[in-house]
Design goal:
By secondary structure, the protein is an alpha+beta fold. Helices cover 25% and strands 32% of the residues. It is built from 5 helices and 8 strands, in the order E-H-E-H-E-H-E-E-H-E-E-H-E. The chain has an 8-stranded antiparallel barrel. The radius of gyration is 17 Å and the shape is globular.
């Protein structure tokens, strides 16, 4: 199984509602017509998340949303990309967006908190309030799941393992958990490219950026 990530910037500050409507009501459902995609979810780096993050870098600082798809294997990537081409051709794509980081990552670690009943492999499918993500060096997934509010964690790595993406699934209070996890990341001396919380995206609730001026 692979994780396919996209860290996406919406380049038109007035376009967030349109982007969310397109992604949640059109683009995301269409992915599940592809055999071999078992999971797809998107989270938002809301202004509250930005205020709570522990690290950022020039490459990742522009992103607003993170999407994760779970793919059965590499054979799913060609039809995944072909669907994107077909949607482009049918004018079913959102133009005012830019992926600042995207691509497939190997799953290299899975952990579940002792308090949850499900296996580590089932954690992403369990409801949560959001995620805490660390991009950069590997972090200790077992230590992450020891924190209250963290149901489990998955770790991904690129082909040469030069970059890890660690995703902790938070079913407790997101920002309380984020504060504790940021302290853990800092104490470990992790030089993250980005680290912080991301909120769950709920259907038809897309107003995080409505009153803000562009960053």
């Amino acid at each position: 199984m692979l994780g396919f990530f996209s860290f996406t910037e919406v380049t038109d500050p007035s376009g967030h509602e349109a982007y969310n409507a397109w992604h949640q009501l059109d683009h995301l459902p269409e992915q599940f017509t592809i055999e071999g995609i078992s999971f797809g979810q998107r989270w938002v780096r809301s202004p509250r998340c930005t205020a709570a993050e522990a690290a950022t870098t020039e490459q990742l600082d522009p992103f607003h949303y993170m999407t994760l798809y779970l793919l059965r294997d590499e054979d799913v990537i060609p039809p995944f990309m072909e669907l994107a081409k077909r949607l482009h051709a049918a004018d079913r794509f959102f133009a005012a967006r830019r992926a600042v980081l995207s691509g497939p990552f190997e799953i290299v670690g899975q952990w579940a908190a002792p308090r949850v009943a499900v296996s580590a492999g089932a954690v992403p499918f369990r409801p949560s309030h959001g995620v805490y993500v660390v991009v950069g060096p590997a972090v200790d997934g077992r230590a992450l799941v020891d924190h209250p509010g963290v149901a489990g964690a998955w770790q991904f790595a690129d082909a040469i393992r030069a970059r890890h993406l660690t995703v902790a699934f938070v079913d407790g209070e997101l920002f309380g958990a984020a504060s504790a996890l940021s302290e853990m990341v800092a104490a470990a001396g992790t030089r993250a490219e980005w680290a912080g919380p991301l909120e769950r995206v709920d259907a038809f609730r897309w107003d995080w950026f409505a009153t803000l001026t562009p960053r």
